[in-house]
């Protein structure tokens, strides 16, 4: 009998240890198990906030009917200050959201240098903002727990720039029905309409796809929708939190009189005969041709993939005939950079010889070189991939007036086609680090069981950390939503790296394959490696060396390596949204992945010398919001240790009880 009790005690201890032991199969959810409908308004409700329309702060001395005047517009350059209370991951997400504003609008967020009015971003108990420039000096905007998503940040800053929610516009009732009997008691005011004296639609049609639209379940009772779209197919469109919609951008650019974007330079899908102002090489040598299809391939462009009759063009350099070394040149129009770095993105199709080559050059102009001086940037290696449109990113580092030159070069091998170019984008942004293309994605979506994942190849970050991601195409435990998780893996530079991995932010973006980078609504998720994060038993650091806290696994190529525990979300993207836009194109899906060092964000943002943090007038916001959550990292560690101690104390107590029974 005694031996049975002893076995039971040690079984309990082993189970507790096994349940909390880190392995390469461990995957934690940053969304804390909430479903794909978990939104800004759910976050704020759980936090106990009762704000206008769920996330809008109203100034005590202002009427809500005073938002149309020019005095409520910010300048195109908007000062901001990031408070230390913000989580490091949130800071990184905010900076990425600012880059989207710069790419797609003329709004440029800049660190506060002492301007009279600025936006102070902090971690409150929720996500909220005022509407417009309230002329109060320090204007507060909260990015609290679970608010660190790209579209959520874009949403709150659109409020600050002067936007109300889409379904509150004056013509709302022409497009949606509000189910008043399904709304929580006391929340009816969140569905009131703003008249044209309060808000302007800027002559833009009602937008079901706006990032500012309520979801169908906003403030609802039970499971029935509180909003029903008059066009049924838009029921699963409203409430998207992926990115700005086209109409969001149109309205913002109209409101702020934007004529160009801050960091966008060019986009070309070659649909028009003027080929976007590009210049062919000298007559007498091989030429790039404007083609609809090519006998040897491709038989369609990448922009339209043959879906639109009479449309779909690309540029093609034939290598069927000619001699080894024959060249064809295609130069862009002139560009005038503002930054010192650019990202060139394009699709390349090789139906020619295995050693046919594409070279990317820049022609730079200065006083010493008024006709331009050529500089080779990169030789494109197709990696043996042929007869497929492949995505490439090339980083440029140009600081003066320039053109981009594409040089096609015929190799020695036999050719039935040549090189083709399509969907070129040039912007003054940072290129994605890595591309993971999942081929035959449509079939995988139809056949992959729930709970089954696929792993990406291993990638290496600029800092030397090796990583991979896992994707559950049909969810971890229930279908209807994709899940995604980030894992550190063992790599060639592990011995020289700092462990646990300190403050690196992983970006996992499913690319919207729209040909124009400004119109993409890609789905992003970012997570950051906190070196203080512990396993649930408090014995291991979560982001320690995978050789220590991971599992030995075998990759698809037969190589063996260690995969550490993962973190991500079980509600990455609902299938209803996955099948919208251009997430799947030519049956393929493309993930853009990266891991960057964000430890610099631990530093306090410098204060202007003469500046003092103060507001001209108060606003009705939850009390003590700027003094909460300032020790998040310490609290996380303390909580983990406390949970571990509680578990140990429980086992000890049970052991004492069992031992007493033995005696």
UniProtKB/TrEMBL annotation:
Binds 1 zinc ion per subunit. Residues 431-595 form the MATH domain. Its cofactor is Zn(2+). Keywords: Disulfide bond, EGF-like domain, Glycoprotein, Hydrolase, Membrane, Metal-binding, Metalloprotease, Protease, Signal, Transmembrane, Transmembrane helix, Zinc, Zymogen. One of its GO terms (molecular function) is zinc ion binding. CDD domains: MAM (cd06263). GO terms for cellular component: membrane. The keyword Lipid metabolism does not apply. Its main location: membrane. Residues 65-259 form the Peptidase M12A domain. This is Metalloendopeptidase.
């Amino acid at each position: 009998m005694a031996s049975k009790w002893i076995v039971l005690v040690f079984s309990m201890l082993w189970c507790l240890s096994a349940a909390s032991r880190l392995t390469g199969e461990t995957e934690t959810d940053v969304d804390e198990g909430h479903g794909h409908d978990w939104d800004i308004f759910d976050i704020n409700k759980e936090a106990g906030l009762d704000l206008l329309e769920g996330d809008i702060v109203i100034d005590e001395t202002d009427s809500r009917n005073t938002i149309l005047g020019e005095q409520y517009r910010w300048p195109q350059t908007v000062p901001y200050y990031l408070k230390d209370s913000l989580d490091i991951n949130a800071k990184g997400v905010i900076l990425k959201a600012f880059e989207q504003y710069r790419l797609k609008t003329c709004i440029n967020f800049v660190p506060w240098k002492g301007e009279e009015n600025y936006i102070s971003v902090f971690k409150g108990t929720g996500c909220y903002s005022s509407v417009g420039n309230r002329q109060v000096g320090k204007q507060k905007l909260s990015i609290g727990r679970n608010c660190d998503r790209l579209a959520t940040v874009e949403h709150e800053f659109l409020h600050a720039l002067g936007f109300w929610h889409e379904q509150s516009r004056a013509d709302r009732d022409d497009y949606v029905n509000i189910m008043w009997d399904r709304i929580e008691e006391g929340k009816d005011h969140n569905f009131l309409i703003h008249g044209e004296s309060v808000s302007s639609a800027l002559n833009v049609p009602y937008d079901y796809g706006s990032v500012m639209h309520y979801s169908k379940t906003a403030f609802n009772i039970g499971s029935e929708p509180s909003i029903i779209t008059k066009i049924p197919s838009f029921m699963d469109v409203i409430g998207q939190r992926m990115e700005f919609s086209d109409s969001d951008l149109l309205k913002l650019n109209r409101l702020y009189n934007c004529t160009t974007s801050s960091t966008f330079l060019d986009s070309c899908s070659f649909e028009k005969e003027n080929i976007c102002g590009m210049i062919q090489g000298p007559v007498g040598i091989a030429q790039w041709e404007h083609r609809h299809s090519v006998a040897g391939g491709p038989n369609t462009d990448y922009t339209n993939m043959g879906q639109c009759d009479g449309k779909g063009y690309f540029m093609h350099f034939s290598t069927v005939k000619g001699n080894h070394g024959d060249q064809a040149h295609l130069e862009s129009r002139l560009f005038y950079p503002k930054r010192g770095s650019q990202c060139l993105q394009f699709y390349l199709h090789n139906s020619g010889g295995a050693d046919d080559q594409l070279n990317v050059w820049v022609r730079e102009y200065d006083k010493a070189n008024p006709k331009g001086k050529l500089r080779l940037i990169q030789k494109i290696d197709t990696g043996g991939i042929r007869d497929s449109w492949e995505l490439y990113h090339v980083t440029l580092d140009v600081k003066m007036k320039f053109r981009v030159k594409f040089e096609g070069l015929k190799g020695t091998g036999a050719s039935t086609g040549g090189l083709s170019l399509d969907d070129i984008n040039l912007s003054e942004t940072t290129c994605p680090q890595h591309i993971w293309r999942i081929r035959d994605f449509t079939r995988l979506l139809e056949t992959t069981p729930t709970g089954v994942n696929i792993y990406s190849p291993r990638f290496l970050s600029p800092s030397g950390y090796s990583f991979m991601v896992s994707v559950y195409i049909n969810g971890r435990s229930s279908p209807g939503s994709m899940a995604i998780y980030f894992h550190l893996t063992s790599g060639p530079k592990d011995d020289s790296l700092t462990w646990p991995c300190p403050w690196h932010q992983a970006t996992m973006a499913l690319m919207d394959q729209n040909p124009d980078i400004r119109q993409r609504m890609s789905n992003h998720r970012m997570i950051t490696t906190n070196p203080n994060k512990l396993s649930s038993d408090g014995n291991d650091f979560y982001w320690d060396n995978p050789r220590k806290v991971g599992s030995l696994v075998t990759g698809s190529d037969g190589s063996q390596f260690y995969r550490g525990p993962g973190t991500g979300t079980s509600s990455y993207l609902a299938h209803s949204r996955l099948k919208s836009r251009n997430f799947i194109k030519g049956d393929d899906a493309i993930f853009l992945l990266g891991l960057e060092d964000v430890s610099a964000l631990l530093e306090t943002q410098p204060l202007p010398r003469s500046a003092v943090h103060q507001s001209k007038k108060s606003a009705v916001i939850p009390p003590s919001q700027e003094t909460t959550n300032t020790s998040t990292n310490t609290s996380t560690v303390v909580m983990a240790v406390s949970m571990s101690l509680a578990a140990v104390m429980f086992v000890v107590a049970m052991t004492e009880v069992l031992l007493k029974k033995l005696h």
